[in-house]
User: Which sequence fits this backbone?
C-alpha cells in the first residue's frame, strides 16, 4: 500500500482553518489511503508531534519525493525511512506508532 505522509505539512492544505489532523488526513486520502486510516494517522501525528516537527517531516517527505520516479506516491517504508533520517527521534517514533496503530503497514 502506498501513501504520502503529512500532505498538509508538505504543502497540500485543504484550508488554512482546518485542524492539522484533518489536513493530514485529507492529504493521505488523496494519495490512496482510506478515510478511516487517514483520519487515524492524522489524529495520532497531530497529537504526538508539534507543528515544527510536522513541518520538518513534511519538508523531508517533499524533498524525498522530488527525486523519486513517482513523486506522487510515498510508501510506508519510504515514510519511515524519511522520518528516521530527521535528527529528531520523536518524529520517527511517532510515524512508526501511527502507522502500526492505524494498520498502515509497510
Assistant:
Amino acid at each position: 500500500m502506498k501513501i504520502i505522509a503529512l500532505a498538509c505539512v508538505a504543502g497540500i492544505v485543504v484550508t488554512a482553518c482546518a485542524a492539522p489532523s484533518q489536513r493530514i488526513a485529507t492529504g493521505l486520502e488523496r494519495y490512496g489511503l482510506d478515510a478511516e486510516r487517514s483520519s487515524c494517522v492524522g489524529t495520532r501525528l497531530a497529537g504526538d508531534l508539534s507543528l515544527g516537527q510536522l513541518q520538518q517531516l513534511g519538508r523531508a517527505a517533499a524533498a524525498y519525493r522530488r527525486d523519486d520516479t513517482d513523486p506522487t506516491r510515498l510508501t510506508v517504508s519510504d515514510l519511515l525511512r524519511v522520518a528516521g533520517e530527521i535528527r529528531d527521534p520523536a518524529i520517527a517514533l511517532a510515524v512508526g506508532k501511527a502507522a502500526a496503530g492505524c494498520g498502515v503497514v509497510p
